[in-house]
Amino acid sequence: MRKNPLELLRGLWTTFRSMLESPVTYQYPEIKRPVRERFRGRHELKRYENGLEKCIGCALCAAACPADAIFVEAAENTDEERYSPGERYASTYEINLLRCIFCGFCEDSCPTEAIVLEQNYEVSFTSRRQAIYTKDLLLVPVPTNGRQTPMKVPPGSFERAVPEMEDAK
Amino acid sequence: MMEKKIMDETFTVPIGPQHPALKEPSHFRITVDGEIVTNAVVRLGYAHRGIEKAVEGRNWIQNLYMLERICGICSHIHATAYCLGVEQLAGVEVPPRAQAIRVLTAELERIHSHFLWVGVAAHEAGFDTLFMYIWRDRETVMDLLETLSGNRVNYSVNILGGVKFDINEEQADAIRKGLDYLEERTNHYLDVVSNDAMFLQRTSGIGVMTRNQAEVLGTVGPTARASNVARDVRVEAPYGAYFDYPANIVLEERGDLTARFVVRIKELFESYRLIRLILDTLPSGDLETRMPRRIKEGETVCRVEAPRGELFYFIKSNGTDMPERIKIRTPTICNMTSVVKLVIGHQLADVPMILVGIDPCFSCNDRMVILDRSDGYKQQWTWEALRQHGIDYYHEQHS
Ligand code: SF4
Ligand code: SF4
Q1: Cis peptide bond prior to A150, omega within 30° of 0
Q2: What per-residue confidence (pLDDT) applies to A11?
């Protein structure tokens, strides 16, 4: 350095120049950076337009999950008290977010596209119990034109559990 | 009398398993004479996660997700190694477009890993400005990976028999633009690590590993290539799309820390070239083929070039939908022996730099081996016989 004072000036010039650059950081949490389309965040249990839950309690997601994070217990639907189309619905649905590795295999395996890894990444808790997300936390709100579940429906109107899907193979 | 006793004793500095300077748990016992290191012992295994055992109880598809999570930095290459092995066992041919996308992601991952390393190493050398700059630029490649896959880590590109997503023109252009910026910055960083007088004081002539040492210690990856050992799985035993897009090997002669910086930074240019080539000549066609649920009985060895060096998978199937055994060897374990040899004779303050020079990743390398020979098995292998057996076995599997 003593040999070449120009080096010092060059270094300082680099530092000085960066003062003129705009910052690359985001002022989180005031400003949130949008996530990309394929992002895998916290799960949501989806509903149909009419308010019925898509989940039919088949527990395929629980079987697929590499981390054993999902617990599903199914119960029978009746036309008096209908939660989802078809015979059964999930009476208990729990995801332990401390176990979950956010792989998205549950989403792949669901026959009704009920469980979707959405864009929420702000998942923090203060106790282990809180890490277990129950069905009421996961279920999305009822759409505007839908009704709350359980709903009373005309007999025989929702027999089919798995809907027609475009890209189903 | 008392004084003499103290003078005679060498002093052992224990570092870790928990230590502010260590990013991951490991234990070093460094014996010093004054400031000079006279001996070093490393103890690994604090981050053993039992993942090899866990995969034995899960099916082939679930294991893909498990194994992708071995390393947070080179997650894609773990999944690729696993997929290549399982596809080989099943006798499934992956479409060329899928193979190209795998390699493209692997090279993007290499860029991000090398940028990360230069930053960490610069930080270790006390050059935090470089650390900040290079991590800022690393965000470019992280964003590209995020654009492609939706995630910054664990991209989940692979599925057994193909890849999950395609690359459209818009994404390709974003990647090209990102690479142009990165290339310009990389030129600058190459200049910094090879010419900055202050930085060279921390790296030049430190931790010199001769070519012979590098070979004997069995180092892999950029650590070996910095000592002029031509060891790169992409070149020696190409896999996937590296047949169509051959990689060039980058070598340095000096074998010191500067060389390790230079090798890794020069490899970035090679990655840029490969990615551009793949983007320009991406083969058309399907993204996946059908995979059977049960994999045929058999065993295979699969080697790929992770950012840190050779990654090795041994996969054994017993014909069911779960593997019987998967053995993983990550590059860090191969390079670790070089650290304990190289630090001897250096100042204590150089130890972190030499350690970081191999780009260690502790939790990836922690595996457990139990040898239970209670059945009276007595055969002894000489080193040459064992090595020959390994070579023969490998050729048998890949003939
Ligand atoms: S979320 Fe899907 S896979 Fe899981 S129980 Fe409900 S319907 Fe079945
Ligand atoms: S994202 Fe993966 S780990 Fe998490 S609940 Fe779904 S399948 Fe299980």
Answers
A1: yes
A2: 78
CA atoms of A149 and B293, how far apart (whole Å): 38
Please give the Cα distance from B207 to B93 (Å, whole number).
44
Report, as an integer, the average pLDDT of B195-224: 90
pLDDT at B8: 59
Taken in order B111, B115, B121, B125, is the CA torsion positive or negative? positive
Q: The tokens of B379 are what?
A: 């055969």
Structure confidence at residue B369 as a pLDDT band (50, 70, 90): low
Answer whether B249's CB lies under 8 Å from B230's CB: yes
Which residues, other chains included, contact B162 with Cβ-Cβ below 8 Å and sequence gap of 6+? B94, B95, B98, B286, B287, B288, B289
CB contact under 8 A, A66 and B65: yes
CB contact under 8 A, B139 and A24: yes
Residue B113: how many other CB atoms lie within 10 Å: 22
Strands (E), B24-137: 27-33, 36-43
Q: Measure the CA–CA gap between B192 and B171, rounded to whole angstroms.
A: 31
Block residue for tokens 């530092």: A15
pTM, two decimal places: 0.90
**What's the rounded Cα separation, in Å, for the pair B53 and B223?**
30
Mean pLDDT value across residues B241-254: 92
User: Which of A7, A40, A64 is opposite residue B151, by nearest beta carbon?
Assistant: A40
Q: Give the distance (Å) from ligand 1 centre to CA of residue B157.
A: 24
Q: Give me the CATH topology for the region A42-138.
A: Alpha-Beta Plaits (3.30.70)
Q: Lowest-pLDDT range, B210-219, B239-248, B368-377?
A: B368-377
Can you name the residues that pair with A44 across neighbouring β-strands? A116
Atom of ligand 1 nearest to the CA of A56: 7
Mean pLDDT, rounded, for B174-190 = 94
Minimal Cα distance from A61: which residue of B?
B62
Instruction: Give every CB contact of residue B230 below 8 A, 6+ residues apart in sequence.
Output: B249, B251
Identity at B58, one-letter amino acid code: R
> Over 70: is that where the pLDDT of B5 sits?
no
Distance A60 CA to ligand 1 centre (A): 6
DSSP β-ladder status, B162-163 and A70-76 = unpaired
Contacts of A101 (CB under 8 A, 6+ apart): A66, A67, A69, B65, B66, B69
Residue B4 has pLDDT above 60, yes or no: no
| Alpha carbon distances (Å) from B286 to A24, B104, B157, B162, B163 | 38, 16, 15, 9, 10
What DSSP element (H or E) covers B163?
A: strand B162-163
| Closest among A54, A45, A25 to A160, alpha carbons compared | A54
Q: How far apart are the first and last CA of chain A?
A: 68
The model's pLDDT over A140-157, given as tens digits with 9 standing for 90+, comes to 999 988 888 888 888 878
Rounded to whole angstroms, the Cα distance separating B336 from B298 reads 32
Residue with the two structure tokens 């989180």: A28
pLDDT in tens, B124-140: 888 898 999 999 999 99
**What topology does CATH give the domain B51-365?**
Cytochrome-c3 Hydrogenase; chain B (1.10.645)
